Amino acid sequence: METKLIDGKMVSARVREEIKKQTAELRKSGIHPGLVVVL
To answer: Mind listing the pLDDT tens digit for each residue in 9-24?
Structure first.
C-alpha cells in the first residue's frame, strides 16, 4: 500500500465550498439549515 499525503487545508476548502453551495440551494427553497442538539 502506498503512502499518500493530503493537504488538509485544500480538502477543507473544497468541502466548505460544496457545503456553501448546498446551503444556498436549501435557502432558495425556504429551508434554513442549522444545528440542533437533542438531549
So the answer is: 999 999 999 999 999 9
